[in-house]
Amino acid sequence: MNKEAMYKLGYGLYVLTAKTADGAKDNGCIINTAIQVTTTPNRISICVNKANYTHDIIQETGEFNISIISEKAEFALFKHFGFQTGREVNKFADYPDAVRSNNGLYVITKGINAFISGKVVQTVDLGTHTMFIADVTDGGVLNQDPSATYSYYQSNIKPKPQETAVKGWRCKICGYIYEGEELPEDFICPVCKHGAIDFEKIQ
Q: Which residues contact 157 (CB under 8 A, 6 or more apart)?
């Protein structure tokens, strides 16, 4: 199988936000799987890697927001919410580009064109990920900027990799380099949590 075929699927990009049940901490991460599944009732589904701290919060509270990333987004947004873990840092400490929505969770305001709030009604265990199916409880449009696709991110937002003499494998998502001749099939990128399928051999 040519694994590149999977990259031809259409993906959007989103900042997924949630807040712990005790209200003590907000967190957010980048996801690329969110879709409307029914209109009556109005429901969406999202898929979240179990390694993400945001996943655990949503599993506990059943509530989330997704901020839909636009083509105006800068790489700093992806770096802030995708390349560090909320288990170790407070991603919203002194973060200026966010406001609370009606459910009390954060919505990102820069590099975003809209947001949707969800309340989980069903979960599906997908192995490495959990699918959360949720009722849409709120939503708003911030501007008319086009939504960023995964392909647009790769071509226009993500910095191009620098030439390197290191031998190994490079993550096509975030640029992390695994040094070694062979990449384990079950390897997970420690930065963006993508699997071995998203690595390319450095020639």
A: 73, 74, 75, 78, 148
